[in-house]
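Q: I'm writing up a methods section and want to include an example of the input and output format. Could you take the sequence below and give the corresponding predicted structure tokens, formatted cleanly so I can copy it straight into the document?
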Amino acid sequence: MRLVKLRILPVLAFLIMYIVSFTLRLKEVGKEKEKQITREGKPVILSFWHGRLFYIPYYYRKASSGWRILISASDDGEMITRTISWFGYGKVRGSSFKNARRALIGLKRAVDEGYSVAMIADGSRGPCEKMQMGALMVSKLSGAAAIPFAIAFSNCWKMKSWDRFLFPKPFSKVVVIYGDPVIVPPDCASAVLEEKRVELEENLSRITDEADHFFLS
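A: Here is the clean output for your methods example:
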């Protein structure tokens, strides 16, 4: 069973994600907020909700070699690692629950080496759409900007999972929206760090709501 999970399922997951994503019609909002930073040769920290991650590996596939993705060190994480490797992404292993220090060190090293990093804002266990400290800590340690990133689909299935995962229906539309960058000062106090966490969470929640209503207007 473990052999199936680690060798066969990643290939199937990649094929499903790629084929379905290929059929989607893309709209982009606020892309320049990221480009203004990356044009200067600076990496970014992409922060998004767990339930909205389906389209991301496909969306950034052409630049995948310049990205590192934080993935938990569990068996499920290993399956995800093998799936995203088909898109060309590198990984940093760890989570806020296990190997948190290792994850932070790996992410800082990746940013210092010029890689942008992708991090699930509400972590691998939730609570759903509640910003955790990960992206803020990486910003504090590295000086990189954390950019909130929202995705929504014109037609999708919503899973009954803790993260309310969105699975797009083929040939529907997808919108990606970038929020305002947040940078955490390296020497800030814990109170300031919490203020930045709230700022990033509110920004991501706002553009998520904007994305959800994008195709209703």
